[in-house]
Structures are given as C-alpha cells and as structure tokens.
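Weekly modeling sync, notes
Attendees: S.R. (lead), two postdocs, one rotation student

Agenda item 3: backlog of single-chain predictions. S.R. asked that every request posted to the team notebook include the full sequence so nobody has to chase files. The rotation student volunteered to paste the first one in as an example of the format we agreed on. Action items at the bottom.

Example entry:
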Amino acid sequence: MEGSWESLSVRLHEKVLQTLRELQFTHMTPVQSATIPLFMNNKDIAAEAITGSGKTLAFVIPLLEILLRREEKLKKMQVGGIIITPTRELAVQINEVLSHFTKHFPHFSQILLIGGSNPADDVEKFKEHGGNIIVATPGRLVDMFRRRTDGLDLASCVKALDVLVLDEADRLLDMGFEASLNTILEFLPKQRRTGLFSATQTQEVENLVRAGLRNPVRITVKEKGVAASSSQKTPTRLQNYYMVCKADEKFNHLVAFLRRRKPEKHLVFFSTCACVEYYGKALGTLVKNVKILCIHGKMKHKRNKIFTEFRKLPSGILVCTDVMARGIDIPEVNWVIQYDPPSSASSFVHRCGRTARIGHHGSALVFLLPMEESYVNFLSINQKCPMQEMKPLKNSVDLLPKLKTLVLADRAMFDKGMKAFVSYVQAYAKHECSLIFRVKDLDFASLARGFALLKMPKMPELRGKSFSDFIPTAVDTDSIAYKDKNREKQRQKVLEEHRKQKQESGGQKKFCKSKAWSKQKAKKDKKKKVAEKRKREEGSDIEEEDLDELLNDTRLLKKLKKGKISEEEFEKQLLCNKRKFGSEEADD
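Predicted structure, as returned to the notebook:
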C-alpha cells in the first residue's frame, strides 16, 4: 500500500475524505497516488494498470474534486462529468461507488444509462432528476444523444462538461465500440479533462489517446514486488493452477472441486451462453446447499439483479461467460475457475483478475484437455503468467449418469445440452490460439459424453465423421417431455400437426436442411441489427431468439394473407421453422 490520503500533494475535500473512511479505504494504491494529483491539476491522463489495482477511485475522486471547484454550480440539466465503461455490470458497480460520495453532495445529481431498460424511461428520468454526472455504456449514451424528438437535447447539456473518463478502454475497443466512442467525442467540448484507463495497451487504445486526449501524461503502474522490466499482468498474490483431464472427466472434477469448497466464493467461466445455461442448471442440482447463480450476455433484464445479489453473498457460485471478466469488483472471491479456456490470452488474465484484488490473496484454476497442455507454456511466454499443476482428485464420483437422468426427465435440459455442445464447438473453432486449440483434433465422442448427450446433434461440422466410442442412449428423444406443462402442450400440438402432414404426404418427411455456421452467422448478425434498431426506436424488450422466430412467423403470415401459400403449406412451413429454431445454438 501507498501513503495515506492526507499525504497527497493536493488537498481533498473533507467530505471526500469522510467517505473514504466510511468505505475503510485507509491508504492509496499506486495507481491512485500517481493519478489523482495529475488529474486534479488539469492534466489529461492515459493510465495503464493491472486489473484489481483500484482504478475506479483513481478517476471518481478527481472527477468530484474538479466539479466541486467549478466557479459556477451545475444546473440540474448540465452534465459536468461522464464515465463510459464497456458493460452494464461495470457501470452499475461504478455508479454504486460514486453514490457513496455524492450522498454527501446532494447538489450533484447522477444518472446511470445502460442497456436492459427502456430508453424512453431514461429520458424522462434525466428530464425530471437531471444528470450532473453520467455513468453509461457507449451504445445507450449514443442513443440518448439522438433522442432530441423526445424532448431531450443532450448535446446542449454537455456543453458544460469538465471531465470525461473512458474506463477499460482496451475492452471498449475490443467490443467494437470505436464508432460509438467517435460519435460521442464529436458531441463533447474540446476544453475538458479526459482520463483513459486500461489494463493493457494496444494500438487501438493508442489511436484513441491521440484522438481524444491533449498532451496526456502517461502512467504505467506495476504492483510492488514486480520488477520494472517484468510484463507480468496478473496480481502477485494470485496462485494460478491448471488441471489436465479428459473431456468426459472434466465435469466430474469440477463438481468434486466445488463440493470440497462450499464455504467459499467462486466464479466459474464457460465459453458460451448456452454452456452457462446448461451446466448452471446441472450444478444447481448436483452441488447442494450452495447458492448458485448464472449470468451471461443474452440475459437482458435479470443481469443487474443477479450481479447485485452475488456481490452481497458471503459464499456461493456464479456461473458466467466473459461478460464478468473485465473490471468487475466482487468482494471476497476465493477461486476463479475456467472450465473452458477463453478465446484470447488477455481474457485469461482478466478472468483471473476477479480474485486477488487490491492486496487480497486469491486462486485461479483452468481445466485443460490433454491436447491443450502446451497452453501453459504459451501463457508463461505470452503473458508472463506462472502456473502450477493441480492433480485431479482420485476416485472422483462419476456424475454423468445423474446428469443424463436430468436430461431424460426434462426436455428443456435436453435442448440446453444440445445447444451447449454445438455452441462450444463453434466457440472452439474461433480460438485465437488455433495452433493449440484445434477443432479437428477434438475427441467429439469424449466431448459428447462430457455433455451427457443422449445422441450426437446433426450439424455440418460433424458430417461424415464416425463416433464408435459414443453410444447413443436407447430412447426415442421425441418422447422426452417438458416439465413445463404449457411448453409440453404446445410441443404436442406441433407433433400432432407433423403426424397429420406425414400421413397426408404418404409418409414422406419434410426435410429442413441445416445451414453452414458461416451462413447462420451472417443471418444472425442481420437479425441482431434489426433487434438493435427496434430497441432504439421503440424501447422494445424483445429477445434476439424470440425476434428470429417472430420474423419467420410474420413472413409466413403475410404470404398466407396475400394468398401466396395455402393454409396447409402455411402449417407445414411453420412447423419447419419451429424445428429449425429449436436447433439453433446460443453463443456469446
């Protein structure tokens, strides 16, 4: 730790110091002591510091101090400070930290602008309560600038802007927000202080520094105990482990690991949303007396509630995708478990950074298949990330039969398992380290057993392959019912229609050919754009998957009304769409 807050070369407001005492932040971290005086002395800042180093206070405190020193007090509709961050969870977290300070300064209003809510409601909230300090994600902020027809001219409100903060700048650019950031910068006054904070320096971040900052002071902060010449990006108090096991043993080892550490707090990372949905349900049944929550990027309205709930838990398990990998500060996380290695080495570092934060100790574990073991050397060279092997527990209980029983008992689990497998293969094929993570080398039979699949899915990637080591379960999968009675009733209705059509066609089956992933991806990208446009225009809460099905059904209905197809053909194509929609994967 560095010196006390009172030892800073600039004097902090007494109520800021009071808040720091209330939050029990008795000493500064290196990034805070280096950044705050410069920022408060009207310097633009480009700071690079490892994850978990205390960057949030490094920009919240100077932002408040600069606004407190304004000659003219901010009016309700005047924006003095904007903090932009890549994910809604991180925005919620920053907003929460900020609120601890602003409660002592009631003349400052703050507003949170993130996805998952109706933009029209945000406009009304801003008009009613104001927003001297805005904490936002890029997409929602751009949307607010464009809502002049709703009676809000945000471009006029930001003319009094003093401070702009870009948090997790490297991640902002990784997620494709460059165009949004450029749009936002065009609306903002040039005479302002700008702070750019990131965990890694990239060429894209450097370009943003040149475009958005004026003669910035560059700050690179290392942890104590890390040599200046070292490029290690993980905290020194982090113990990093790896475990090598076969694909059909991995789930058993995960459950055994979690069962032995029930009193602790864990993050368990998977590569796709579908895997989170499937294995999250499985863990909820097989790991008893532990609070288990799931969070991923396709969740729209539940994410904030789940995130807030898990932060408050003394122990528990959060099953998640990389939506939780960056900047998130969850108290007392003991273990970060990477069930699937991430698609990039930088994501590996950021996942690990959810533990061992700001002086605390923590541990991380990644599961690797035998063919992936060279990933350890890759991380050692590429990220200067030291790791040690953890041997699998001997004689761990085989839980895959129990998982298969869960699948047989509820069609929802059967569907989730098939989607998870397909999405995993797709994500694996996109890994940036393709020399190690080679999809053609995957043991698909072992992988399918690890997912407790009843049968292999029909997908182009498996066409022409034989799987002698995988024995399909001797059960008619059409006979597996949904536990949800309404879903099952609807399914039976569709099956009955299918049986009638089969009889009418003399037993010939209507075949809906699966499209290659590349074509599916292009279609999904187009669908996503439609969904985003609809949300911007109407504040719609419709999910992407629901929109896909809705668009298909709407097209058919239009054809029926125009007489282009008969009612019989309408029913046949509707059934075909239902079957196709049910086979699509969900991914990050």
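Discussion: group reviewed the output briefly. The longest helix spans residues 517-538.
Action items: rotation student to repeat for the remaining queue; S.R. to check formatting next week.
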